[in-house]
Amino acid sequence: MNMRRKLALLVTSTVAALALGSIAWAAIPDAGGTVHGCYDKGSGQLRVTDTQTNVPKACTVKEAALDWNLRGLQGLPGPQGPAGPSGAPGGDPTADAFVGRFGEDVGNAAAATGEPCTLGQILLTASTLKTAGGVPANGQLLPIAQYTALFALLGVTYGGDGKSTFALPDLRDITPNHMTYSICIFGSWPQ
Known about the structure:
By secondary structure, this protein is α+β, with helices and mostly antiparallel strands. Helices cover 20% and strands 17% of the residues. The protein is elongated, with a radius of gyration of 34 Å. It starts with a helix and ends in an 8-residue tail after the last strand.
């Protein structure tokens, strides 16, 4: 490649870089976060401009100035909507019968061991005396130092200070009557 072509290529590249740079600079929102543009009413073309520097150029007479990301004044609150329908007197017997089957005489079982389990696994047993393995899921606090693997799995999702204690989930309210949800505290790491 001769010297003249190299020089022409360099000049062309520089001009293109400057042109693209000015367009890119203009596309950046102003200090208030607003992007300014011009809409050509005849052709429908849209271009971005910088109103402070008029780069690449200000809107012409044939163009409409547009601004994006403007926030106007807060409007007045709308009227209050109509009240919803009243519930059935005395509640819903179907729902009450279902809900009444949970949370009674639950979570009182003693910790027990059973088949090998996966750490953090929730187990349900039809007993109020012994768990299916692990400890009842009653939301109790456990010391991190004693249950480091379980803490690594649960963190403070269910409570605790994360420094010396963490909590187990409390599943008593969703436990079927006369049963116990327990959580495996010593088991194999989940795969």
